[in-house]
Every structure is written in structure tokens, then in C-alpha cells.
Amino acid sequence: MDAPELLALYERMALIRRTEKAAHDLFLSGLVKGTTHLAAGHEAVAVGASAALRDDDYVFATYRGHHHALARGATPEECLAELMSRATGLCRAKGGSMHLTKASVNMLGSYAIVGAHLPMAVGAAWSARMRGTGQLAVAFFGDGATNIGAFHEALNLAAVWKLPVLFVCENNLYMEYTPIADVTAVARPAADRAPAYGVPGEVVDGNDVVAVRETVAALAERARAGGGPAIVEAETYRHFGHSRADPAAYRPAEEVERWLKHDPLDLARGRLAELGVEEETVTAADDRARAAVQEAVEAAKNAPPPDPREALTDVWADGGAAWRT
Amino acid sequence: MADVITYREAVAEGIAREMRRDAAVVCLGEDIGEAGGVFKTTVGLLKEFGPERVWDTPISEQAIVGAAMGAAMTGMRPVAEIMFSDFLACCWDYLANEIPKVRYMTGGQVTVPLVVRTANGGGLGFGAQHSQATENWALTVPGLKIAAPATPADVIGMMAAAIRSDDPVVFFEHKGLLASKGAPPPADHVVELGRAAVVREGADVTLVALASMVPVALEAAARLAGEGVDAEVVDLRSLIPLDTATVLASLAKTSRLVTVEENPYQGGWGATVVSVVADEGFDLLDAPVRRIAGECVPLPFADVLEEQVIPTTEKVVAAVRGLAAY
User: Fold this and answer.
1) Is A315 on the interface with B (CB under 8 A)?
2) Are B274 and B307 found together in one domain?
């Protein structure tokens, strides 16, 4: 990967990190309600994979999905406005943190029932094949999703129909509060299941944006050429707990320290230095990300709440909610 | 086309008509291709449209309905078959949490034009896990349209409306009606969802029925006519949208209401119909309402037991006699 591309990916990751930090702070100041599942630490998976995709490829994500929306082109302002229940939010404040969606760029949603979106991605890939568009579908999911039935049904159907779909697992070692290793029969929760479905299962350093991009690009090319689906297991770590309610005290201090030293932004910064990019150039990218998120926070704070009448719209395609005639 | 068509043939005919007019319509499900469906409701589709439009699946209800959803969000109009309506429980997440909510929770960004077809109801002696009437399950979820036709012509007309709908539709095909016959409808026959049919006019009492209970209600009405009771029968045809206007208009004539439901009394669709009448049509009533519904037990196997659970003509006649005398 050349320096300009890596710098662009770095800046996108910095933007996501800043947005997640802002979401955290806004929650503590009472401006974000409900809960959040922050993806700080996972940035390289979303940004690296996204860099390997076509603009019209389909992406399906989970309730820990802010980074996927941002990686596919949602702005910090529309994401934070959604979290802050503003009319200008991505989903007009009807979805919230767990359901960020930007359909105009084929980021087709964030789903909060674990594993439910994997069959949907299979369906989008099936649709792309029938329409002959050459599009790919990607489902991002956590390690916990590998033990739910929909994961296995989706893998089998995708393999049988040889569909252009990639299953990208963000293995952050914990399914909510429990170590994934304690509740899974195999060591690699996603990749070790791949042989059962006759598909490739690649393990990659999920904090290395270059490695993620290369791995996903190779499997995407294979899938587009008719080679069928594949699993990517990206090893990563979350900087925050599972959700707002979780201080993540169950994680050993040594483990946390080791992973924080293996931070995706630091890794990218090291690679940029190796490519001869000046420190000031990287700092300028950081500054732009910080400024963009600051502006986004202010804009979201100043945006209006949704019109209460919106509660009774958007159930049906005609825009309404009438259930009787 | 023949002079008569069975309900079973009407299912395949209804799908085929839409597949001919719209290349985005595709089918998926277990045994729907070469086998023509376990109930033979997809016979001929593979032959006419080929394997690129008629897809056999593994026994994976979540993958079937989840993939249909993903395809519907990306430009196709999938028609997914869930073999028995009891099996909707195996993919209930999609019908309860995903399909009906995705449009709303994305602020209207996503449209899900799909049909989930399923064989519903009792009368064939399949026991507790293959005989339930589950239309009331779908009724608990805002965001699903619900079709349950009673005649071959309505199967074709409502299939057209369901497949053309930009909203998700759960389409209940009643197993007990599959062999029933009727006149085939003309080309491009469309029955809009949310339009009940008054299938027998009467002045004394309104029987509101759905799917297999429509012939039961009609038979009861015929017997009651011999006793001097003139019953009107309303075939709801859809549960969502629910045609409460037709029900209230009928009550304005008859002042007496009986619902005839195959689903269990507890949580059955008649409760929703009756609550609307209580709210908005109380002044129209001259007698208490009666709900004739399935007993609140799992469906038993033996015919003699099943007859105790699913409403019969005798039960409807007895209920109406009581009301007429009120």
C-alpha cells in the first residue's frame, strides 16, 4: 500500500476513534441516552475491509457498528446526531446507536439481534448474483455470533450457492462479558468453522489496516470471480467495555496493556513512518479528524429533535402506519 | 385455462402470473423446485422459470427468510416458502424483529418487498406441530401485512397484491382448503389487501371469518336460514390491513357479531376485531359478541379430538342461535 492511501485510511481511523470518544463523552454528559457499544480499537477492521470493497458493495453490521457506518461514508455529524436523538440523525432518530444505517451507500444496516444479519448478507449476495452486478456483500460480526444458528445456516447456504459474500468476524476475545474461548468448542471461533462449510477461513491481525485490506481484497476478488464465500477472522480488542454498562473489569490488566500497545492507529503510524511520511503530515491528519468531530458534535447539539409526529411514519412503504381500513 | 381450479393449483398459478410479469420475482424454499412443494403448491414453476428463479434450499428457515430479506432490500421480490406455518417459529426473529422493523428503524431508508408463504391450519391430522393456525402470531407484530385467502380466486388475486406490495406480506395458505375448487379468475386479477368480502348477505347476525372458517361460517349460515335466522358472512381475507370498516358497516345492519376463528381463543384475531367494535361500534350492538375460536390447547392428533378443538359448523350454529334469541 502506498503512503497516500495509507494516510487516508489512517485519517479515517482517527475520525472513527475521535467519534467514539465523543460518543463516550456525550453519554457521560447526558446527551446520549440508552446505551452504546463503542468500537474504539476495532477501527482497522472496518477501514481496512472497506478499502478493499467497491463503492456499491453491500455492508451489514452489528449493534457495535459505528465504525462500519463511518468507514462506508456516514459522517460523524449524522452518526452523533442519531445517538443524540436529533432529527438530522442517520435514521432520523428512529434507530439509535445500535441501528446506524446509510442505505444510499449500501451500508444496509446495523442489527442488534446477534447473527441475524448474516443471512441477510447472503440474500444481498444472492440478489447481486441474480442481477449480474458483480457486487459483493460483507457481514461484519463479533466472535459471539459464531455460536448462533443463523451463522451456520448462512455459511452453509452461501457455500452451497457459491455466493459472493464475505463473513468478517471481529474477534475481540469476549462475547459480551465472557471469554469466547470458555464457550466455544474450537480455538478460532470463526476460522475454525470454515472447513465444515468448505470455505476459506483466514485469520488476520485485525489491528493492522494493511493486513486487513490485503486479506479482504484477495477473498473479495475470489468471491467476485465465482469462487464463493469466505470467512475472515480479524483479531482485535475493544478499548471500552461491551456496552455503556460494562467497565470490563473481567479483563486481565496484562492483557489490556498488551493490546493497547498493539493499537491500530499506532500500528498505522509506524507503517507511515516506514514509508517516509513526515510526523507533521500525520499530525495534520489527526488535527483534521479532531476538528471534524468537534464540528460534528456542535452541529449535532444544535440540531432539532424529531417532530413527534414522526413516531407514526415509516412503517409501510407509503410512509404511513395505518393497520386497518 | 380449465373451468375450475383448485386452491392448490391457484397458489402456483398466482406465483407464476407474477413471475411472468416481473423478472425480479424469485422463489426459494424447501422442496419447491423439482418436487413442486410438499403440498404441490409450486408445481410447474421450476419447469417454466428455471433454476435461476426457483431455488431449493436446505432446511434452514432462518437462512431462507433472512436471505429473502437481504434480496428484497437489494432489488428483488422474493417469495419464500416456509413449509408449515408452525415452522415460522424457527425463523421468528426475522418476522418479529428484522423484516417488520428495518424500514422504521432506519427512518424509511429501506424497503422490504417480500412474501413469506406458508401452509397453515388443521384438519389433516398432522398433530400438534404441523396443524396449528398461526395467523394470530403474525398479528402481534406491527409492520407485517397478513393475507389468508379462502378461495382459489382470492389466492390468485391476493398473491398478485402480496407480490406487488412494497411491504412484507405473510401469506397463509390453508391446508384444509388446498383441494377445494373454484372458478379461475380473469387475467390480471388483483385483490387489494385490506378489503374484506361480504360473501353472504344477511340481516340478523354478522359472522366474521377467515380462510378455512369461511366455508364453516357459510355452512352454518345455510343451516340457520332453515331456522329463520338470516346471517351475513364477512370473509376478512386480510388481517393487516384489517377491514374494520366492512365489519362495522355489516353490524350497522345486523347488530349482532360472531367471530369464527381457527386460531386459539387466547390471543386470537377475533379479539382485535371485537375490541375495535367495542370501542367504535358499541352503539350498533343489540347483543353480546361471541367468539367461536380454537380451544386453548395444542392441536391433538385423533380426528375425534381435533374436532373438539377446531370450530365446527355445529358450534357456530349453536352460538348464533343463542345470540338470535337474545
Assistant:
1) yes
2) yes
Q: For residues B14, B18, B20 and B26, what is the CA-based torsion angle, rounded to 10 degrees?
A: -100
Of B26, B62, B76, the CB nearest to A153: B62
Interatomic CA distance for residues B79 and B67, integer angstroms: 11
The pLDDT confidence band at residue B326, using thresholds 50, 70 and 90, is confident
**Contact status, residue A120 vs residue A108, Cβ threshold 8 Å:** yes
Looking at the structure, tell me whether residues B113 and B143 fall in a common domain: yes
> How far does the CA of residue A276 sit from the closest CA of chain B (Å)?
43
Domain range summary for chain A, segments of one domain joined by +: 3-303
pLDDT of residue B1: 56
Answer whether B105 sits within 8 Å of A321, measured CB to CB. no
Look at residue A179 in the predicted model and tell me its pLDDT: 96
Which of B182, B216, B234 terminates a domain? The answer is B182
Q: Catalytic: which of B9, B13, B18, B61?
A: B61
Tens digits of residue pLDDT in B150-166: 999 999 999 999 999 99
Chosen from B19, B53, B56, B62 to mutate, greatest number of chain A CBs within 10 A: B62
Query: Is A321 at the interface with chain B, CB within 8 A?
Result: yes
Choose which CATH entry (3.40.190.10, 3.40.50.970, 3.40.109.10, 3.40.1120.10) describes domain A3-303: 3.40.50.970
Domain-located, residue B139: yes
Dihedral over Cα of A251, A253, A254, A260: its sign: positive
Are residues B58 and A95, on separate chains, in Cβ contact within 8 Å?
no
Task: Say if residue B312 is in the same domain as residue B239.
Answer: yes
Q: CB-based contact (8 Å) between B75 and chain A? A: yes
Q: At residue A244, does pLDDT exceed 90?
A: no
Residue B192 covered by a domain: no
When pLDDT is averaged across residues B232-243 and rounded to a whole number, the result is 98
**Chain A interface includes B261 (CB < 8 A):** no
**Domain residues for B36?**
5-182
- CA–chain centroid gap for A233, Å, is 14
Residue B45 falls inside a structural domain: yes
Q: Is B242 on the interface with A (CB under 8 A)?
A: yes
Instruction: Test B73 with A317 for CB contact under 8 angstroms.
Output: no
What pLDDT band is residue A50 in, cutting at 50, 70 and 90? very high
CB neighbour list of residue B10: distance below 8 Å, 6 or more residues apart = B152, B153, B155, B156, B159, B182, B184
Note the pLDDT tens digit of each residue in A144-157.
999 999 999 999 99
What is the residue type of A233? E
Question: What are the pLDDT digits (tens) for A199-238?
Answer: 999 999 999 999 999 999 999 999 999 999 999 999 999 9
What is the average pLDDT across A33-46?
96
Q: Looking at the structure, tell me whether residues B24 and B138 fall in a common domain.
A: yes
Inter-chain residue contact B74 with A128, CB threshold 8 Å: yes
**pTM reported for the whole predicted model:** 0.97
User: What would the pLDDT profile of A78-132 be if each residue is shown by its tens digit?
Assistant: 999 999 999 999 999 999 999 999 999 999 999 999 999 999 999 999 999 999 9
Catalytic: B130?
A: yes
State whether B214 and B278 are in the same domain. Answer: yes
Q: Is A122 on the interface with B (CB under 8 A)?
A: yes
Q: Number of CB pairs < 8 Å for A and B?
A: 166
Domain end (from B147, B182, B217): B182
CA A318 to CA A315: how far, in whole Å? 8
- How close A251 comes to chain B (CA, Å)? 32
Spatial separation of the C-alpha atoms in residues A259 and A243, rounded to whole Å:
19
Q: How many domains does chain B have?
A: 2
Burial zone of A283 (CB within 10 Å; 0-12 exposed, 13-18 middle, 19+ buried): exposed
